[in-house]
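During the reporting period the student researcher (J.K.) took over the structure-prediction task from the postdoctoral fellow and processed the backlog of single-chain submissions. One of the processed entries is reproduced below for the supervisory committee.
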Amino acid sequence: MMDEKKGTELVMQLIKDGVVVKNDLLHTLQREDVLTTPEKVRDEMEVWYKNMGIETLTGKPFRLNLPYFTEEEIKKVEANDEILLCLPGGIDAATLGKMFHMDCWVFYDSLVTLNTEYADFWFSTKKSPEPDFLDRTPREISKQYKDDEKLNMSIERYMVFLARMRYLTGEYPEKECKTWLPNTRYEGKGIVIAGIDSNSKFCAHGWMPNFHSPKVGGRYVYIVDHH
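J.K. obtained the following structure tokens:
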């Protein structure tokens, strides 16, 4: 008992002295507690959204539906170095922007076709610090994902990915690259590219679908087929 007490006092003193940051400690503990059951995954994601202020922004109680991934499928997500995410139904890009402290013209421009999910949308994607298929056009990327039975990113799904990765790791991915968002159109034919700029701010641009660059790639969205 005395050893446990001394250990607790040591940790508290390290936090007080600034040697250990409380949020970093919480993130470390969270990573140690691997969540595999749908109920635990739902509860943790729900608490995260509440702590981000979703109930204040919407003015109503917040509750997520269970993910339609089974426990075995959730374990497979971890084994594949993917992250399981949920975009809540009825939450638009502007609300996500306020919640995640991301401000961007695309949330309000009438020329942008946004995609608010009508129901809680659970999906997985790669945790990698940069996107796949760099220097390929969004048409090529979309075709590849279709062949692989995967879906495209929208700006709403992508914002959840960025915010969640920053929460879990302490920093944004994709500081050097950008991602095509084929499910978010600009003026009908154009497609939005988004990412993190050199000031660590969320940014987006509209480009034509025949454009390609070694600094722009794609991120797939995967959902299980039994939901």
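The committee noted the following: The chain is about 40% helix and 15% strand.
J.K. will present the remaining backlog at the next meeting.
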